[in-house]
Amino acid sequence: MVSLNVEERFMRAALIEARRGLGLTSPNPAVGAVLVVDGKVAARGHHRRAGAPHAEAECLARFGRTVPKSATLYVTLEPCSTTGRTGPCTTAIIDASVKKLVIGALDPNPKHAGRGIDRLKKAGIDVRVGVLSEECSELNESYNKWIRTGVPFVIAKCGMSLDGRLTTPPSEDRWLTSAASRRDAHRLRSRVDAILVGAETIRADNPRLTLRGQAASKQPWRIVLSRSEKLPARARIFTDRFAARTLVYRQIQLDALLRELGAKEITSVLIEGGGDILGQALDRRLIDKVQIYVAPIFTGGSVLAFAGNGAGATSAAPRLTRARYARIGTDLCVVGYPTFDRHRAE
């Protein structure tokens, strides 16, 4: 009997593999696998992109020989049991004569959940489920929401001053946060399918909304939400080499826009501003996660970070759960999941 500590150690190795695929596999989940022989990792694999071999198949192919009966395969997500762009991972595992399998999290797809495990057990494989299940599930929080609801996972991100402003005086440098925070924000961009901003952000800042300093990353879609037709034709997002990955939506409610994006297999959306869009998302209870960089400065700028209607009462105000705080450069980074009262905003 392998101890729980040992199982967790090898599952963490599988999680390291899975994280290598973050931002590259959508609309599929990021998955990692390791094959353990005689107490050591003998092969590793991860899902690299949609259509490429899944983590289990890559790991077994890298091992490249008969799997010993004593070996154990660790995988962060329940192996698929259906044919899509690739064959079922359950078939690959059975054909490789794997006898022991440890799984982190169940497949959240209601059509598939548990079926892969049933098939593997019927093939005589010893299957254990639930090792580091929370970590394995959180790794694919965007996929998990999208596969259940058809709506993307929404992250609200901004850099703001201590007095809750997104801007400095017009004549000054527009950056509030440190270079380290901006690098960290680019890592966040590299893990989402789309970046959403309002038209005023395009007019005022002319942002690139591209990835910088992120190797082997896929440029997210750039989504602009506008109330009018007045957008500058020479804006960077319309003229650079990623112009084809820019979409403009006019006269559409934010929640309806998210449903449209979900139908396009966009599983995660990063709202980067401005304050009006962030405020709308908060008022409509559309935010699943926040990542806020707070600079140690008071600016008195004109743009509020979340310029919405606000909570009608403190008791009904959204509160962060699973909040994490980190110092990045000179700034404080706050990450968490807002919870709302049961009455959805209308």
Can you walk me through this structure?
- There is one protein chain.
- It is elongated and about 70 Å long.
- It contains eleven helices and 13 strands.
- It starts with a helix and ends in a 7-residue tail after the last strand.
- It is α/β, with parallel strands linked by helices.
What features would you highlight for this structure?
28% helix, 5-stranded mixed β-sheet, elongated, alpha/beta, 346 residues, 8-stranded mixed β-sheet, 11 helices
The coarse overall form would be elongated
Q: How much is the average pLDDT? A: 93
Strand arrangement in the largest pleated sheet: 9-8-7-10-6-11-13-12
How helix-rich are the residues, as a percent range?
A: 25-40%
Any low-confidence stretches, pLDDT <50, length ≥5?
342-346
Give the topology string: H per helix, E per strand.
Answer: HEEHEHEHEHHEHEHEHEHEHEEE
Enumerate how many helices there are, as a single number. 11
How are the SSEs ordered, and which strands pair?
Layout: H1 4-19, E1 32-37, E2 40-46, H2 55-63, E3 72-77, H3 89-95, E4 100-105, H4 115-122, E5 126-129, H5 133-139, H6 141-149, E6 153-160, H7 179-189, E7 194-198, H8 199-205, E8 221-226, H9 236-239, E9 246-250, H10 254-263, E10 268-273, H11 275-283, E11 289-294, E12 319-328, E13 331-339
Parallel strand pairs: 3-4, 4-5, 6-10, 6-11, 7-8, 7-10, 8-9
Antiparallel strand pairs: 1-2, 1-3, 11-13, 12-13
Helix pairs in contact: 3-4
